[in-house]
Here is the input.
Amino acid sequence: AAQRAGLLAATRPLARGPALYTATAAGRRQAGNGLEACRVTAANAAHLTAVAEVAAAMARRHPDHDVQGERELRARERAAGHALASARLGTAPDGSPLLHRPDLVLWPVDSGWPPVVVEVELTVKSPARLAAIVLAWARCRRVAGALYCASPGAARAVGPALEAARAPERVRVIPIEA
Here is the structure.
């Protein structure tokens, strides 16, 4: 019904993949949440699907948390005027912080605890980039910790980054099917 009303658009960029639904401009206006558009391509469809599956699993397992994605976090941080659950990777030439945003954030409901961030890794990042991100999450005091939901290959790549950051209590890996 939302698709017929012009509020959602279905995209199937991968022939054997599921249809992915995104809010149209009219849908985003009606929701009034200030979210940026989500662009679905063949390059990001598998990742977006995995993030949606992990988000659904997290919502079922943690009903005492609100599960939000990267675009919701960007909107929240824009409204707050500062980082809420993003890790600092460095400093930009203009002096502003360079931030890394997670794929998902688990915001505790009715508690004073900080959020937990979730990274969904299906492919192996460069070791230097992965090490920098893991170290940034290990140092980030805005969050209680970080979970890497990773395919087998990506999980093997996260291991050395965890050892280098010396942060197994702040960053954990949960294996997922590729």
